[in-house]
């Protein structure tokens, strides 16, 4: 009886081990495919984050934008820049964060337009 129980446990461990190994292989392949798809645009975005010292998500939170449209970015930037003007009792630090956030989002828009031009060279 113990012999059969041991065999069942060993077989179960082997099945689970193979399934786990297969899942790891699939996850690795998926992450490699995503990295290739992200390609140069992802590298440029990471470089822009390191240059400006601000991530894309942080910049979007500061300017309160969910989609990267130049009109929305400019509108929110103008409002926040005026509100945080030192002459009206605002904070120079916050105003500078608003400026850096706009710079970061503008850089991301430039990266996206370059990527679109590479995909559609005829336009």
From TrEMBL:
<keyword id="KW-0496">Mitochondrion</keyword>
<dbReference type="Pfam" id="PF03656">
    <property type="entry name" value="Pam16"/>
</dbReference>
<keyword id="KW-0472">Membrane</keyword>
<keyword id="KW-0653">Protein transport</keyword>
<protein>
    <recommendedName>
        <fullName>Presequence translocase associated motor 16</fullName>
    </recommendedName>
</protein>
<comment type="similarity">
    <text>Belongs to the TIM16/PAM16 family.</text>
</comment>
<keyword id="KW-0811">Translocation</keyword>
<dbReference type="InterPro" id="IPR005341">
    <property type="entry name" value="Tim16"/>
</dbReference>
<dbReference type="GO" id="GO:0001405">
    <property type="term" value="C:PAM complex, Tim23 associated import motor"/>
</dbReference>
<dbReference type="InterPro" id="IPR036869">
    <property type="entry name" value="J_dom_sf"/>
</dbReference>
<keyword id="KW-0999">Mitochondrion inner membrane</keyword>
<keyword id="KW-0813">Transport</keyword>
<dbReference type="GO" id="GO:0030150">
    <property type="term" value="P:protein import into mitochondrial matrix"/>
</dbReference>
């Amino acid at each position: 009886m113990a012999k059969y129980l041991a065999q069942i446990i060993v077989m179960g461990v082997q099945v689970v081990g193979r399934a786990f190994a297969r899942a790891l292989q699939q996850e690795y392949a998926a992450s490699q495919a995503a990295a290739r798809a992200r390609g140069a645009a992802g590298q440029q975005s990471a470089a822009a984050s390191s240059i400006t010292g601000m991530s894309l998500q942080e910049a979007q939170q500061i300017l309160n934008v969910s989609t990267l449209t130049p009109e929305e970015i400019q509108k929110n930037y103008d409002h926040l820049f005026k509100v945080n003007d030192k002459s009206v009792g605002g904070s120079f630090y916050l105003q500078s964060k608003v400026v850096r956030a706009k710079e970061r989002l503008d850089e991301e828009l430039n990266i996206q337009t370059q990527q679109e031009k590479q995909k559609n060279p005829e336009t």
